[in-house]
Specification:
This protein is α+β, with helices and mostly antiparallel strands and 688 residues long. 42% of the residues lie in helices and 17% in strands. The strands form 4 sheets. Strands 2, 9, 10, 11, 12, 13, 14 and 15 form an 8-stranded mixed sheet that branches. A 5-stranded antiparallel sheet has the order 3-7-6-5-4, covered by helices on one side. Strand 18 and strand 19 form a beta hairpin. Helix 8 crosses helix 9 and helix 19 crosses helix 21. The longest helix has 43 residues.
Length: 688
């Protein structure tokens, strides 16, 4: 039996926010963390896909690819394989590989046992001749592996699927299960109870885990032995790597005065927590720091540290990096220090709202350190946990519960929400469920009826959640030490904050003057959101009331009615979409169209969604030398050119064709000028 080696020092936190140490969360759809058990259950329910048997002449990019392919073929056909022989040459390295059936060959003759307690294990080897031999060749400078011999003739019975999964080659304890097993073992659970807990948590029948009870016993015993042997070395590595990380921060500060960092030490003067940020991130925060997402969903196995990242969204809808922190524990005290460090980095400016995962300790820290900031838990952070919490106790009724929960989330009225919540709890018999109680206690941070009117800059959406996941995958590429992790954070953050934007042509869909006007002001991201609302506005009917307000309802009455109140240059809607996203809703737009508005009032174009918004900020013009003026003028001209050229496709095509010619001409003329003047300092030029 083998355990799966860790591919990364970082994994998602699995401890449940309910506070019960015996409870953990398994995230669906995460290939790095989903246990093999759930995959096997799904495979058992789905028909086996046809798989081509290996054949002589078959080509693979590497011997590892060939071994994986042959292993999958073996699994589907009732046996397993092993690596037999390899041959080496000075020119090609390993150029021959032999893979054989697990029952190939014969057991060597055993010496007569001398001990009293010797166990005479019968060998499974029976001389089976099933095999796949490979040879490496260099084709046009690229190495390829060819199948030179293949046989699928066995001299033993092939196993059914429920038997083949128990072969040693397939009995793997995945990383997430390893962590859970060790946690239960430390708590004093006997092995048979650990196995039972895993079966219950995964919702599978007894004996259906992808490993056996003896595998768990061997894993625990071996891990204890390894921990005892390596604990001192691991502690030394943690201390050394943490000090190297601190030295890297100091060195970066010496070369980049805008870089900021902070740290704490414990009673033994060892680094405990450390946080850092970059000058570009701080500048971006001055423009887009109204809403912050604080991600704390990942922790290091090697170092036992929690990673937290402060992220935002810019005027083009891209995820931007503000800073990060490594914490030794997940207590309110540590979270409070992290938030204090972040505020120091950002010059004391608090965000209007902060989005986080469900975490009572973090919630307490935010209440203490950011009393004027709205704390929000994204719906997607909740939905990812519901299967682990309720799919097993609800069984076949889980889908019905999920549908009812989705409807309940969108209820407008607070009183109606609480009434329907109690009805839902009673309907599904969840009155004593601790997770349901936790969700209700935190309802003001996630239920839509409590969240309307708080500005979230579209960061509570599923698309933003996916953007954050993509950013974090870039951060958590394979690392071996904290210093290389620090460098990777800097590379990923710099790439994310300075990614180039392609010029986008924005099509007109309604021919309404409001749309034409908005296109010249908003970024493509914000314009697309407004344009979608404008298109949907055409599906709404209005009724003017005696006081000048309007009742707006969909022509099919799909989403109820809304009250829209126009006052001078102001317009308010009961859905509060503008207050939440900074984009006018379809209801308000419908009323403005009826009232013959050809342009939206300027106050409905928030600066954070305008084209001219830029993360390149010069805070004090008096400190810049005179040479910087042309940089600002150049930036203004390029932004104006971008705006004007994107109005029509003809303009856009013209700029694309002519701009390259003009810039090439100008560059050639500059190169012909004398080079005797002092070179201009380009360090403050804006990023393209």
């Amino acid at each position: 039996m083998t355990s799966v080696p860790s591919k990364n020092i970082w994994i998602r936190r699995q401890q449940c926010p309910c506070g019960d140490w015996k409870c953990y969360v398994a995230y669906e759809g995460d290939a790095e963390e989903t246990s093999l058990a759930s995959q096997l259950v799904k495979n058992d329910m789905a028909p086996l896909e046809a798989m081509v048997a290996p054949y002589v002449g078959m080509v693979f990019k590497s011997d590892d690819d060939a071994f994986e392919y042959y292993g999958n073929f073996a699994r589907k056909n009732g046996f397993s394989i092993r690596k037999e022989r390899s041959r080496l040459s000075p020119q090609l390295g390993i150029y021959k590989r032999d893979f054989v059936c697990y029952r190939s060959g014969f057991a060597p003759a055993k010496k007569k046992p001398t001990g009293e307690h010797h166990r005479d294990r019968k060998s499974v080897r029976c001389g089976c001749d099933a095999k796949m031999y490979l040879s490496k060749e260099i084709v046009e400078g690229v190495s390829q592996w060819f199948v030179v011999q293949f046989s699928n003739v066995h001299n033993h019975e092939l196993l059914e699927d429920d038997q083949v999964r128990l072969l040693p080659a397939y009995r793997k304890i995945q990383e997430a299960d390893q962590e859970r097993i060790l946690l239960l073992s430390k708590a004093g659970f006997p092995i048979h109870r650990i196995v039972k807990v895993l079966e219950l948590e995964k919702g599978i029948q007894g004996g259906q885990l992808p490993f056996l009870e003896r595998d768990v016993r061997n894993f625990v015993q071996n891990r204890k032995k390894v921990v005892q042997e390596n604990d001192a070395l691991l502690t030394e590595k943690r201390e050394t790597d943490t000090m190297e990380l601190l030295e890297a921060c100091k060195a970066t500060k010496e070369t980049d005065e805008d870089f900021v960092y902070d740290f704490t030490v414990d009673e033994n003067d060892k680094v405990e927590n450390i946080a850092w940020s970059y000058g570009d991130s701080i500048n971006a925060y001055t423009m887009f720091g109204d809403v912050v997402y604080f991600d704390t969903t990942n922790r290091s196995i090697t170092y036992g540290m929690l990673f937290g990242a402060w992220l935002g969204i810019d005027n083009h809808g891209r995820t931007i990096f503000y800073g990060c922190v490594l914490l030794q524990d997940e207590t309110p005290r540590s979270f409070s220090w992290a938030l204090q460090a972040f505020l120091r980095f950002m010059r004391g400016r608090c965000p209007q709202a902060i989005l986080t995962d469900l975490d009572p300790g973090l919630r307490d820290a935010i209440t203490s350190e950011l009393p004027g900031t709205k704390h929000v838990t994204s719906l997607w952070n909740i939905l990812s946990k519901l299967p682990s919490w309720l799919s097993l106790p609800l069984g076949s009724r889980y889908a019905e519960f999920k549908s009812e929960f989705d409807v309940l989330y969108r209820v407008d009225n607070v009183d109606e929400f609480e009434l329907r919540w109690n009805q839902m709890v009673s309907m599904f018999g969840l009155g004593s469920d601790k997770h349901i109680a936790l969700l209700f206690s935190l309802r003001t941070s996630w239920a839509l009826s409590y969240m309307r009117g708080y500005f979230l800059a579209q960061m509570a959406s599923q698309s933003y959640s996916k953007s954050v996941d993509a950013f974090l995958k870039g951060v958590f590429s394979a690392q071996t030490c904290l210093r290389s992790f620090f460098e990777q954070v800097g590379i990923t953050a710099n790439f994310q904050n300075h990614a180039r934007l392609e010029m986008q042509y924005m099509h007109i869909k309604t021919c309404i003057p409001i749309e034409e006007h908005a296109r010249s002001i908003l970024t493509p991201f914000a314009f697309n959101a407004l344009q979608n609302e404008l298109v949907l506005a055409m599906q709404y009917a209005t009724s003017e009331m005696a006081d000048g307000s309007y009742i707006v309802r969909h022509f099919k009455k799909m989403d109820g009615e809304r009250l829209v109140i126009p006052e001078d240059e102001q317009i308010r809607c009961s859905c509060k979409e503008f207050e939440s996203s900074g984009i006018l809703c379809r209801h308000a737009l419908r009323v403005l169209i009826i009232k013959n508005y050809f342009q939206l009032p300027d106050n409905y174009f928030l600066s954070r969604w305008r084209r001219e918004s830029s993360p390149v900020i010069y805070e004090d013009g008096s400190t810049q030398n005179g040479e910087d003026a042309w940089f600002r003028e150049y930036q203004c001209l390029t932004e104006t050119l971008f705006t004007e050229s994107s109005i029509t496709k003809e303009r856009s095509d013209y700029v694309r064709s002519e701009l390259t010619k003009e810039l090439t001409r100008l560059l050639n003329e500059v190169r012909n000028l004398p080079e005797t003047d002092v070179a201009m300092d380009l360090t403050l030029s804006p990023t393209c």
